Automatic annotation (TrEMBL), chain A:
<keyword id="KW-0227">DNA damage</keyword>
<comment type="similarity">
    <text>Belongs to the rad1 family.</text>
</comment>
<keyword id="KW-0539">Nucleus</keyword>
<keyword id="KW-0234">DNA repair</keyword>
<dbReference type="GO" id="GO:0006281">
    <property type="term" value="P:DNA repair"/>
</dbReference>
<dbReference type="InterPro" id="IPR046938">
    <property type="entry name" value="DNA_clamp_sf"/>
</dbReference>
<dbReference type="Pfam" id="PF02144">
    <property type="entry name" value="Rad1"/>
</dbReference>
<protein>
    <submittedName>
        <fullName>Damaged DNA binding</fullName>
    </submittedName>
</protein>
<dbReference type="GO" id="GO:0005634">
    <property type="term" value="C:nucleus"/>
</dbReference>
Automatic annotation (TrEMBL), chain B:
<dbReference type="GO" id="GO:0006259">
    <property type="term" value="P:DNA metabolic process"/>
</dbReference>
<protein>
    <submittedName>
        <fullName>Hus1-like protein</fullName>
    </submittedName>
</protein>
<dbReference type="Pfam" id="PF04005">
    <property type="entry name" value="Hus1"/>
</dbReference>
<dbReference type="GO" id="GO:0000077">
    <property type="term" value="P:DNA damage checkpoint signaling"/>
</dbReference>
<keyword id="KW-0539">Nucleus</keyword>
<dbReference type="GO" id="GO:0005634">
    <property type="term" value="C:nucleus"/>
</dbReference>
<dbReference type="InterPro" id="IPR007150">
    <property type="entry name" value="HUS1/Mec3"/>
</dbReference>
Length: 304, 297
């Protein structure tokens, strides 16, 4: 691919960000191992970054176009490319200056199909990067998430509490059972391995932690500990401090969906954050979804 | 061979808070070279490996009642473990801070912190060993810290050190002044996650260009219109719209920029008199980073 191939054509995407750290936080949340390939998908609605552990675990970060101060989409269809997630995050980090609001321009593709990044807020100091992209691998299995019935099986728990619970379950390890039951409404995480550990969230007793609950029948599925852990272990502490909730939903066949929200609000006076009690415009939130496949089912799971 | 002096309060603060922590990062072991007028910490000047650094202090910047004598024109040099020196200094300060609070702070006399070269018999040994001793005498207690040092360098070695010192202080033709050291440091700190080897170019127009380039990523930073010290040329207006990379390439082709290669990158830190923007000329810190063989990365 020579540079002339792209010359004169509009790039697929030119966009500008004013909160690089928010994007770094969002992407760090899905970085569960050192060398990880990600697939980036561009559309007129925004950017989706997909990471997966073949046939077990998939994570998606949705960066909607509303998160960008400028979003010019010039492609037909939905271009996809592969990048190394770790490299991309480390590269973005160099553009994020603590306590300083700066503007980053992202463009795809460059003359050699690179992802181009450039700081554009100062005339006399410029940071730039060219990240080599790859032809994306096909996503190995379809994570079509379907509800398990007419009433969704879901609960929302404070992210910090969820992370703490999952961290605690490291001790029994291996396999973790998640049980939802409607009467009394409660969620149980049970680990059996080197020992037994059970963590209960009771909707009435822990309304501070268990914010929402929806379930019409008892259901239980088991998940590999290391995949469950990947859904919370890398969320930066700054995000945990925002005190949001994470939503967990069990779908058909026991597929677990874990959703987190990461603020990508423009950095303003740090006090605003506290005054507004965690409220942010909904448009400045990055959505993160994890899909975890259950372990081979016992009979309590619904069929797929 | 004798050396004896008192550390001033400024000197203690300077060493404990700023200089020793910084020098410790360049290497644990350093030469301390004392002359009639100067105290100089030198890293890697004799072996030539790794980062070379020279931190030079006029004796008044650290000491008072400075007394030195040796048969080698009153010059003494030895190796010292900087982390031990730092620990000894911190320990003495802690003891004094605590006893100062416990007793009557207003009347508390810091005493004076004496530093001297001594030979002592270490425990279970009948071989005397050289130490740099820090000693305070308060009204109620005395604290002595012995920091082990190497045998003093021979006359020939001191001469070699002096020659290396003279050579290392040679100025490059063009220097640029980076006033926002923090942002540069932040950036370089973050860059190191992306790659190990960094290219550095400096132009006579006052541009500093840093770049890491690997098979999967190119990451760079260009800081323009910095103050130029030494040889300078006016920038080319036609280069204004180029990318940082092309601008640097052109400047190198024209001979207006140097990509650091062959020898070393010289970094000179200026110190301000605390609370002012005035350069403190009694302190200087020069570092020279050896350049990697471009073929070896």
């Amino acid at each position: 691919m020579s540079s002339s191939a792209v010359e004169g054509e509009t790039p697929d995407l030119v966009c500008e960000l004013d909160n690089v750290q928010g994007i770094v936080d969002a992407l760090t949340s899905v970085r569960w191992k050192r060398h990880q390939d990600a697939v980036v998908e561009l559309s007129e609605h925004g950017i989706v970054i997909i990471v997966e552990e073949i046939s077990c675990l998939q994570a998606k970060v949705y960066l909607q176009r509303e998160l960008f101060v400028r979003y010019e989409y010039g492609a037909r269809g939905r271009p996809r490319f592969g990048v190394s997630l770790g490299l991309f995050v480390d590269c973005l980090k160099t553009f994020s200056v603590p306590g300083h609001s700066n503007i980053l321009e992202i463009q795809y593709p460059g003359p050699d199909m690179q992802l181009l990044l450039k700081s554009i807020d100062s005339v006399d100091a410029c940071l730039y990067a060219e990240v080599r992209t790859r032809i994306p691998e096909t996503v190995s299995w379809d994570y079509n998430f379907e509800p398990a019935g007419s009433i969704p099986l879901s609960f929302t728990v404070k992210s910090a509490a969820l992370k703490e619970a999952i961290d605690d379950l490291e001790w029994p390890g291996s396999s973790i059972q998640i049980i939802l039951q409607p009467d009394p409404p409660s969620v149980t995480f049970r680990g059996e391995g080197h020992g037994d550990l059970q963590i209960d969230f009771n909707y009435y007793a822990n309304s501070e932690l268990l914010i929402a609950f929806s379930c019409d029948r008892q259901i239980s599925h088991s998940y590999k500990y290391k995949f469950l852990r990947a859904t919370t272990s890398n969320i930066p502490s700054s995000v945990i401090k925002d005190n949001r909730g994470s939503k967990l939903t069990i779908g058909r066949g026991g597929m677990l969906k874990v959703q987190h929200l990461v603020s990508v609000a423009k950095l303003s006076a740090p006090h605003n954050h506290v005054d507004s009690a965690g409220y942010q415009q909904p448009s400045r939130i990055a959505y993160i979804e994890f899909f975890v496949k259950p372990e081979v089912e016992d009979d309590t799971g619904s069929d797929s | 061979m004798k050396f004896k002096a008192f550390l001033t309060e400024n000197g203690i603060n300077l060493l404990e808070k700023r200089i020793l922590p910084a020098l410790d990062k360049m290497g644990k072991i350093s030469h301390l070279y004392l002359t009639r007028d100067h105290a100089i910490f030198l890293h890697n000047l004799l072996n030539g490996h790794g980062i070379q650094s020279i931190a030079q202090f006029k004796k008044e910047a650290i000491f008072e009642d400075y007394k030195i004598s040796s048969q080698n024109d009153d010059k003494i040099a030895f190796s010292i473990d900087l982390s031990l020196l730092h620990r000894a200094l911190r320990s003495i300060l802690t003891i004094y801070a605590e006893s100062g609070e416990a007793h009557n702070p207003s009347e508390f006399n810091f005493g004076r912190l004496q530093i001297k070269l001594v030979k002592k018999f270490p425990p279970h040994s009948n071989q005397p060993m050289p130490f740099l001793t820090l000693e305070t005498k308060g009204s109620k207690s005395a604290v002595v810290q012995d920091v082990p040092i190497s045998k003093p360098l021979s006359r020939a070695d001191v001469q070699e050190l002096q020659m290396a010192l003279d050579g290392a202080q040679e100025m490059p033709k063009t220097l640029v002044k980076v006033s926002e050291l923090n942002s540069l440091q932040n950036f370089v700190d973050r860059m190191k996650h992306v790659g190990d080897v960094m290219g550095v170019s400096i132009s006579k127009y006052g541009d500093l260009h840093l770049q890491i380039s690997t098979t999967s990523i190119t990451l760079g930073a260009e800081f323009r219109k910095l103050m130029v010290i030494g040889e300078r040329t006016d920038g080319r207006p036609e280069d204004g719209n180029l990318s940082a990379q092309s601008r640097t390439e052109r400047a190198v082709q024209r001979g207006d920029a140097m990509t650091v290669q062959g020898s070393c990158l010289t970094v000179i830190f200026q110190f301000f008199i605390p609370g002012t923007r005035q350069t403190d000329k009694s302190i200087s810190l020069h570092c020279r980073l050896p350049v990697l063989d471009p073929g070896s990365n």
